[in-house]
Amino acid sequence: MPPIRRSLPFLLLFALLALMPALRAGAQQRGPLAPWLEARAREHAAWVEDSTRVRSGPMGLWREWVSKEPMLPGFVPPTSLAPLIRAVEAGVVNIKAEGTTQDPLRGLARMSNTGSGFLLTPDGLVVTNNHVVARGDSVAEEIVVRLADGREFPAEVVGRDSSTDVALLRLMGQGLTGLPAVYLGDSDRLEVGDWVVAIGSPFELDHSVSHGMISAKERVIGVGPFDDFIQTDALINPGNSGGPLFNMRGEVVGVNTAIISQGQGIGFAVPINMVKDLLPNLRKNGQLQRGWMGVVIDERSQVGTPQQRAAVVKEVYPSSPAAQAGLRVGDQVVAVNGRQVDSYQQLLRKVAMLAPGTEAKLTLVRGGAQQEVTLKLAARPAQEVLAAMASPGNLGELGLLLRDLSPEVAAPMGLEPYEGVLVSGVTPRSPAARAGLRTRDVVTEVNRRKVKDIAAVKGALEKGAGSTVLLRVQRGDVQQYVVLEP
To answer: Has residue 75 been placed in a domain?
Structure first.
């Protein structure tokens, strides 16, 4: 190609660049032409720069990277994982657990499990899987933990939770100081494709190492209500259970817990951030005492991004922690204790991991503006109580849970159907509790109006005047009037 033709693109570029100051100065007088020329100049500059790094194949069918500069800035291919493994393997332990369990067919049966774990603190707290040290309601009677240096210690269960398959152990005996505890990382920052290393004792092969990458996050595999697994192709086998999954910084980002027996290269780990939320609960209560805010959440698609979900408050239970903190219907919960929430399931997991009495800081979006509120979580009520609270018979402002006297409800109690409304629950310290109402009481009148179902009770309350409510209540063969003062 003649030199002049070869240099034409560069001459054109220099001409456009020389014109740019003048184009900017006269943009108002020249209309939309100046911005268009500026954009073309930038595109040409990018083309010239790219042409020094990329070469096209015949007919432009493919591209080749010819520059000595890295094609993927920030990517450094690993050469050897040996330094990382040497730094962290001392914190990985082997666990043997033995005891007896109740078998429904054979009666008492021997339980013998092996697994892995890791040292959480220098004084001997160890994290492992629940299924390593327990089977159903039966906890192993003898647990022996062997460190990487060969020392063995008996251990006891501090707390465990089958729904997340996490257990916290405490080593016992002499020499429990300065143990090689691991560091925990941030599993929320993991990305698909990040390198990870699993260390454990598969098939009792002590301190075996496998490596791979994060294959997926937030996997639901049907193990329990808090399914939120990290999927990895690092080889995980029986005996790896409870062992750590390390990132490339040497931090534990997951607890290896499950495999799919029919598949190869598919393993699962509990995210370490979930474990962090759970550990204080296990240490204090010995089991998962689930926190409760007192809201019903509606999961919606976010405007403009239907693939992303939002946790929006649909209902706030009266007198609940959420009500006392000022949450309202329509609030969108976007974070709990500074950690992002994108769905109902994430919100449920983050709150349920926190013990009752824990203060939780919620980040909300209300009316387009972001704000923070702090509430103290209560103990999660039993499922039947929650169902009652969500029913039309929940008069939260009075502290009453009511139920219609349908024939199915009335017959076992020897009552006539729809001759009043049954009190099925009374909230402690509520107006109903202060007035002495009890479960199995039957409300027959509200503010001097006879009632036969819950709809009639609500209608009578709406028509009532004043702040007090007058009820006529039948208790056994006795009828009496009761005054409720909200």
So the answer is: no
Judged on CB neighbours under 10 Å (0-12, 13-18, 19+), 253 is: buried
Give catalytic status of residue 131 as yes or no.
yes
- Domain presence at residue 77: no
Q: Is pLDDT of 19 > 60?
A: no
Give me the catalytic one of 162, 201, 215, 241.
241
User: In 3-state terms, what secondary structure has residue 341?
Assistant: coil
Mean local confidence (pLDDT), 425-450: 86
Residues 209 and 239 in one domain: yes
Alpha-helical runs (H) found in 81-121: 82-88
241 is catalytic: yes
Radius of gyration of the chain (CA): 32
In a domain, 322, yes or no: yes
Residue after which a domain boundary falls, among 287, 306, 332: 287
| Residues 451, 444 contacting (CB under 8 angstroms) | yes
Q: pLDDT value at position 45?
A: 64
Identified catalytic residue from 131, 162, 211, 430: 131
User: What is the domain extent for residue 415?
Assistant: 383-484
Q: What's the CA gap between 233 and 211, in Å, rounded?
A: 8
Looking up residue 369, the CATH number of its domain turns out to be 2.30.42.10
Residue 111, CB half-sphere, CA atoms under 13 Å: how many?
Answer: 23
Mean pLDDT confidence for 324-351: 86
Report residue 18 CA to chain centroid gap.
56
Tell whether 364 and 414 lie within a shared domain.
Answer: no
Q: What is the pLDDT of residues 221-259, one digit of tens each?
A: 766 667 788 999 888 888 888 999 999 999 999 999 877
Which region, left, alpha or beta, applies to residue 175 given φ > 0 means left and ψ of -120 to 50 means alpha?
A: left
Residue 188 annotated among the catalytic residues of the structure: no
Residue pair 115/239 in contact (Cβ under 8 Å)? The answer is yes
Q: Catalytic: which of 161, 165, 331, 441?
A: 165
